[in-house]
Amino acid sequence: MILKFDGEHRFLSNFWPAQVVLENETYASVEAGYVASKTLDTEFRQKVRECGEDSGAVKKLGKKVGKTVRQRPCWDEDFKLKVMGDLVRQKFSDPELGGRLLATGDQELEEGNWWGDRFWGVCKGEGRNELGKLLMTVREELKQVVFTHSINTVMEMAGTR
Question: Is the pLDDT of residue 160 over 80?
Answer without folding.
Answer: no
